[in-house]
Design a protein that fits this description.
Shape: globular
CATH architecture of the largest domain: 3-Layer(aba) Sandwich
Distance between the termini: 35 Å
Number of domains: 2
Strand order of the largest sheet: 2-1-3-10-9-4-5-8-6-7
CATH topology of the largest domain: Isopropylmalate Dehydrogenase
Strand content: 15-25%
Largest sheet: 10 strands, mixed
Number of strands: 12
CATH superfamily of the largest domain: Isopropylmalate Dehydrogenase
Structural class: alpha/beta
Helix content: 25-40%
CATH class of the largest domain: Alpha Beta
Bound molecules: nicotinamide-adenine-dinucleotide
Length: about 350
């Protein structure tokens, strides 16, 4: 089993270091190899996704990714910006299925801006299609772009497009995932206004015929955005396109109140995957040793489950995280009165200790 480790920029290096210590504590035999990506790769090689990094990612069974980006790169031409590395990895590895679970840990119910009864016990999964839709259509306006802007332009447009195979495969991923959960899928679209999403709805409905054990309903995206804050626990699996998924998965993530807790997985058709926290490189706290490493540690657990066939090891990590939260340790982003504030390293230490069954720090 080979893992490509791409820590990236900002807090990326700090949080990935803790995830690696947790993986090491499991005593499984992995080969891990690191490479530069994002701003760090741009500084060293003049490109955010150098050939050598892409080659390593392609050859590995899984990629453990930190985060990329820093405000200091905002003036670079778009193809050289750190964030392009993640788009390049998605495209080159064919990572079409993005899994974003939103789970509310009992000890963190107070961190949400919603009432505790609305989110206590929340466990939903958003599956976002990642390589199609308007983000990969034809951006005609960009022909005239100067430094990423359109001086004097009268119009700009992007095209929304999905093909049947693209919708079929993401629908299957959602139905299969629901089979391992509560057997309900909500397909989110805008079929009342957009042809692309009437087509999406039709194809999802056809694929559903192969999954009679799964309950399927359809919801317009504006209603879904409302229902997510009104009654989020009514959902089980949500499947949607790239743009709606981008927005709804961030909304769902924030239901739990703690961006530092949320893992994600992006998979291709051979279950090769890229695993990363849902948050970015947090330049405001980089280098201070205060970032929450749990989203990355939980992403490593998803990696074990989905790409490396090590479900038991994944369970051990997830139980260790619950144990550490129950012991009252918190990084700054999830700290509340009565709990003990710790840094990135101490949080990593505590998870390692829980895995190896030693005493928890603090
Ligand atoms: P961000 O997610 O990096 O940070 C938002 C806020 O959340 C900040 O206040 C930050 O301190 C806090 N935060 C994030 N992760 C945290 C953690 N683990 N522990 C504690 N606090 C945490 O988003 P942003 O500030 O909008 O973006 C910063 C940079 O990250 C930008 O360059 C952006 O493009 C990039 N970004 C990268 C990815 C990625 O690599 N996939 C995703 C989103 C943003």
């Amino acid at each position: 089993m080979k893992i490509a480790v791409l820590p990236g920029d900002g807090i990326g290096t700090e949080i990935v270091a803790e995830a690696i210590r947790v993986l090491d504590a499991l005593d499984l035999s992995f080969e891990m190899e690191s490479a530069l990506v994002g701003g760090a790769a741009y500084e060293a090689h003049g490109h955010p996704l150098p050939e050598s990094t892409l080659k390593l990612a392609k050859e590995a069974d899984a990629v453990l990714f930190g985060a990329v980006g820093d405000w200091k790169y905002d003036k670079l031409d778009r193809p050289l910006r750190p964030e392009q590395a993640i788009l390049g990895l998605r495209k080159n590895l064919g990572l079409f299925a993005n899994f974003r679970p939103a789970i509310c840990y009992e000890q963190l119910v107070g961190a949400s801006s919603l009432k505790p009864e609305l989110i206590s016990g929340l466990d939903i999964l958003i599956i976002r299609e990642l390589t199609g839709d308007i983000y990969f259509g034809q951006p005609r306006g960009r022909r005239t772009a100067v430094d990423g802007h359109f001086p004097g332009a009268e119009e700009a447009f992007d095209t929304m497009r999905y093909s049947r195979p693209e919708v079929e495969r993401i629908a299957r991923v959602a139905f299969e995932a629901a089979r391992k959960r509560n057997k309900r899928v909500t397909s989110v679209d805008k079929a009342n206004v957009l042809e692309t999403f009437q087509f999406w709805k039709d194809v999802v409905t056809e694929v559903h015929k192969d999954y009679p054990d799964i309950e399927l309903d359809h919801m317009y995206v504006d209603n879904a955005a409302m229902q997510l804050v009104k009654a989020p626990k009514k959902f089980d699996v949500i499947v949607t396109g790239n743009m709606f998924g981008d927005i709804l998965s961030d909304e769902a993530a924030m239901l739990t109140g703690s961006i530092g807790m949320l893992p994600s997985a992006s998979l291709n058709s051979s279950n090769q995957g890229l695993y990363e926290p849902s948050h970015g490189s947090a330049p405001d706290i980089a280098g201070k040793g205060v970032a929450n490493p749990l989203a990355t540690i939980l992403s490593a657990a998803m990696m074990l489950r989905f790409s490396l066939n090590q479900a038991e090891a994944a369970d051990r990590i997830e139980s260790a995280v619950k144990h550490v939260l129950a012991s009252g340790l918190r990084t700054g982003d999830i700290w509340s009165e009565g709990t003990k504030r710790v840094g990135t390293r101490e949080m990593g230490d505590a998870v390692v200790a829980a895995i190896t069954k030693k005493t928890i720090t603090g």
